[in-house]
Amino acid sequence: MKIFAGFVILISLGYCLISCHSQVVFPDSALGLGLKAHTCTEAWIEIQIGNNDKTSNIYLKKNGQIIKTINIGQSDSVIYFDDLLPNTSYRFDAFTYVDGKELNSNPLIFTTLDTTSHNLIWQTFTVGEHSRSVLNDAAVIDENNIWAVGEIYTNDSLGSPDFEMYNALNWNGSSWEMYKIPYTYQGSDYYPIQSVCAFNANDIWFGGNGIIHWNGTEFKPVTIPNGIWGPYQINKIWGSSNNDLYVAGGKGSIAYFNGNSWSKIESGTTSNLIDIRGTQDGKTIWICGVNNDHGVSTLLKIKNSISQIIFEGSSNTRNNGYYVGPISSLWCDNDYRVFLMNWSGICLQRNSDKLFLEKQIAAFSSMGLRIDGSSYNNVFTCGQGLLGHWNGISFKEYQELSTPQRILMSVNTKSDIMCSVGLDYNGPVYSNAVIIIGRK
């Protein structure tokens, strides 16, 4: 029998936990059988065998009991567990036999995350006095610094409609201050802002008809060079830092900023790209989009600056029994799965090169438009008559915050505070912008 050199069992679990990353190996490193874990309440156990003996069994134990006998065959294997409990300690071990000798791994011990509370304290604000006031996006820096962007119309000092819009609001902990942020240095071109991405109080990026950067001193227009971005609206900005920044928008447009220069990422699609999210280290980026009538949905993954189409097809497609739908938003925080949201609910999608909806964790009573979270057990959704929270085990909709005319366009959360923004529809040409802040 061949020696099992470099044999690794990788346990990557779908929900981020207390023991976020640990590794154990056999005392005899030449034999090299070990366990590696990203602890969560779901587990993906990946067996990586390299060029070693592919015929012997591996025995996997949970809390001292053998739960799986794995004959790995001729390729790597992935085993999925969905029966782990929140706030519970687990021990995983593995062993095999080499030349008749039992080879045991060191134990891997972790505690799963607890669920978070659905109970929040709410504040609701409305702004706008005429025309179609709406807020498109929000960014929470802390409880005393929140930005909301869109287009707000107010009356002038004489009570007459002022048609020069405000396009940003800033919460200082007690009140909202309104801003008219120009897209040019001349200060005369005011357009709606579609997206805001804040790294800290002095590093905030705004996007819509162009890009504006707040550096703590001034709102500075940023030019993406010709050939990298066309005459398309910027729909979403996201980055792991200000030197790892992605911009997505109309006609499949994607631009990347490394802190010094811009580059174009070919998407391979003409769908309107509407949301971006990446892992915390920025190594894997997910982008979703739809065509103009929402009949076609697109899911992209970017790795090493190369975009790959994971899915592009009819929104009526079913995958693993689940409805793909018009993909409206997505969220992730690690390299193992992404929350994929459509109008009707949330499914978990594997981080793979193929569409595979593992399971649905939420079904909506209304249309879902945006998702965001701070961890697997603290994820918020919003939409048409919808504001909801996933706590790691269950999903709750806050019906008391829903009205028939309310559409929440976006949501952002950080730790124990969230902010959702949108509009209250009051007629064909009039709406108030609405802001909802929730605190735990």
What does this structure look like?
It is a single chain. The protein has 440 residues and is mainly beta. The protein has two domains: 8-111, Immunoglobulin-like, CATH 2.60.40; 121-439, Methylamine Dehydrogenase, Chain H (7 Propeller), CATH 2.130.10. It is 0% helix and 55% strand. The protein has a five-stranded mixed sheet, with no helix packed on it. Strand 32 and strand 33 form a beta hairpin. The radius of gyration is 24 Å and the shape is globular. The protein starts with 7 loop residues before the first strand and ends with a strand.
User: What's the total number of strands?
Assistant: 40
Percentage of residues in DSSP E strands = over 45%
Largest sheet: 5 strands, mixed
Count of domains: 2
The poorly predicted ranges are 1-39
N- and C-termini, Cα separation: 58 Å
Shape: globular
Describe the SSE topology.
Layout: E1 8-12, E2 22-25, E3 34-38, E4 43-48, E5 57-62, E6 65-71, E7 77-81, E8 89-98, E9 101-104, E10 108-111, E11 121-127, E12 134-142, E13 145-152, E14 166-171, E15 176-179, E16 195-200, E17 203-207, E18 211-214, E19 219-222, E20 234-241, E21 244-249, E22 254-257, E23 262-264, E24 272-278, E25 284-290, E26 296-303, E27 306-314, E28 318-319, E29 322-323, E30 327-331, E31 337-342, E32 345-350, E33 357-363, E34 367-375, E35 378-384, E36 386-390, E37 395-397, E38 406-414, E39 417-425, E40 431-439
Parallel strand pairs: 1-3
Antiparallel strand pairs: 1-4, 2-3, 4-7, 5-6, 5-8, 8-9, 8-10, 11-40, 12-13, 13-14, 14-15, 16-17, 17-18, 18-19, 20-21, 21-22, 22-23, 24-25, 25-26, 26-27, 28-29, 30-31, 31-32, 32-33, 34-35, 35-36, 36-37, 38-39, 39-40
